[in-house]
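Two folds, back to back.
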Amino acid sequence: MAFSSSSWEKQNVIISFLFCITIIISQSHVNGCFTSIFSFGDSLADTGNLLQLSLSESGQLFHFDFPPYGRTFFDYPTGRCSDGRLVIDFIAEGFRLPFLPPYFEDENGRRRNFQKGVNFAVTGATALDYSFFKERGIKNPFTNVSLGVELGFFKDVLPSLCSSSSDCKELLRNSLIVMGEIGGNDYNHPFLEGKNTEEIREFVPLVAHTIASAINELIELGAVTFLVPGNLPIGCSPAYLTYFQGSDTDEYDPLTGCITWLNQFSEYHNELLQKELDQIRRLHPHVNLIYADYYNIAMRFYHSRNQFGFRETLIACCGWGGLYNYSSSMACGDPPIRTSCNDPSSYVSWDGLHYTEATYRWISKAVLEELYNIPCINGLCLPLTVNKQIY
């Protein structure tokens, strides 16, 4: 319904068939559902890893570790870059699983129970390694964590979740792997540092291939079901709109106000990512790869905001000044910006770079509906266990 990639409809029957076979073979699913979720990614999925790393390593917190972050649902900052829950939170709720604990979170000095899943996503993380950007003079102000590092975290924790190779394969066969969104920061950091667009465009095939390589590694370990989000329309982001403010009028979409060439860049990433996923499907026909078309889901908010209850689409709910209420030198959470708009649910953007809980709720709804369209989840899992009350 919300996933409109060119190849999705052709693959839907095949993916559904393979998914059903997997569930039939693996009888240890609870009502055919996932028993755990493992998440990789960046700030769109981080549920507290960068916060925990900051507290343990330097003690220096970032602006998104202060109010008003978390105000809508948690009532306090949790390390999530939003006013409330993220897509990964809604997916966990949808399958009646607990919120995924961040990998670096502990309780009284002891690692939390990760049996039902764990989140390895770190705010600021890139798909490509830190050294790649360092060699090119591109700075990451948040972390040196990349997708490869997160995969290393996963491999480190896996032996504590299963006692043998066969047990680990069984665990992963019954798990949902959420691969991102990841890759956005590979472009955000250089774009917002003023790097040449053509140079950044050369990163895209490398980013898409790196994501595919991580998926292949997880397949070798036994994972069979992946949700792989694409990139969001960065041309609609208040941060990008502010940075590129003053662009020629013909560079803006007259219907949405977004910068067209930036959105085309996101589409280019998504196109190459889907080609990589098609290649994996050919090599591993038993694996279920569900591409989550975040781009086209989000574009509906900019074209039909009233339909989704949004009043503002291009202005940040929490920010400072300017046409788009965003300033890189005075970010949400920095003093004195410890307050936000009165009703975050009427805004698409929370802080100029990240979405509000309301926006993430709509995205997750589309994701879960797409999973619901897979016949065996529809027949075995969702009617019995998926929580439909989160909307």
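---
second:
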Amino acid sequence: MPGFFTGDELGGIKAVKYSPADSAGEWKAHTEILAEGTSAGRGRMVQKLAIYRSEGVVASGSLLVAARADGSATVLRTGEGVAPQVVREWKETRLKGGQRYVGLAVREEQVYSCTSNGALRLTKIGQEETTSESASALASLPMRLCDWRLSSDAHTFAYGGDEVELSLWNTEAAFAPRADSEMGTGAEGKKRKRTDQLLPGEIWRAKNVPNDNLNLRQPVHITALTYLQTSPSASHHHLVTGTQHGHVRRYDTRAARRPVADWKDVGKLGGVSAVEKGFAEHELFVADNGCNLFALDLRCGKVSYGYKGTRTPPVMRYMLTSVFDSGLSGAVSALAPAPALLASVAQDRFLRLHSTFPPPEQVGQQQEKKGEVLDKLYMKVIPTAVVWDQSADTPSTAESRGTDGEEEDDEEDVWDGMEDADSGDEDIRQTLPKTKKTRAAT
């Protein structure tokens, strides 16, 4: 069964398991509470979730890490039929009021976290002394960050933010000890910010796009980013960013400092809120701060399809007007891709399970099959984060999309079962053209 972990604005953490679609095409959700929320308000809000699952390291299940608004972080060990166990807890003391976690990742026995004011931390969870500062390594990054991502091999990480260009760093070099002068403090740090000189540990930094038609500088405001492809070469990576102005930009660190593709106005309302690489080739999911969630073709930047609010039964699909085919009713705050599936949480307090389909084989070709909302689960408290549990029993592409073939057969049965108009009815044949003319005139 596919499963996901969610965190909410009161600090609660839940595990949601889905039973595959039945003959009626409906998915059933089973919810388990791993951590209770608090009634003290949003001070314990779960801002980021991360998971690591490996049979060699964590034989009993998964390591789930939650970062909260008060600066605290908790590592839970979860498993089938086993109560969640707290492995380690700590608090980021450098997190100040009005700031938040922008990145969280776990690899084997190491947890990486980053805040909007550039407080980067590496915590080793294999240490027995759970309160020892020696189990943590600290580093400082630029401030005003909006998103931070760790590569799949943990060798590099990337970040971007408000007037902070996309930047790629070597993870090991970032935590290497250095003098204060190398950290970019004082007058030397101010001079470095006005140049293109890389900081210690920094591998590559993007360059702003050219000025607009009025020769005015375009503001830099990266709101979301993700890795598309990790290369064995430390200096060669493919990344994509979303901006406050709704643009989606693709970068190749080996080709140029400016984006190799700049797709404008992908985010329709309030800018891009989330971007996630799908499991299919050339597949990217993009959400904005309105009610839009799209699947994007990375080869051309074209929207393959967008998700609607409800899943229409096949019998009614040809009868309902577009008023019933509206977009999502809440702004998406987080995405979690899984094989052939996608989970999203939104401000309307719903966890949604979506079907996904790969882009067409040929660039520019029409997308025949489009994703739909398979299930909506009301969460009672506004969910703020979601991650796939990386379970091995997640259905394959054919299984999760198997209902589409059944639906097509049902549709054919519906049309075959309809009675043909009597070809000998002259009255009907004469009135049809008149009716069309009357509608066109009005």
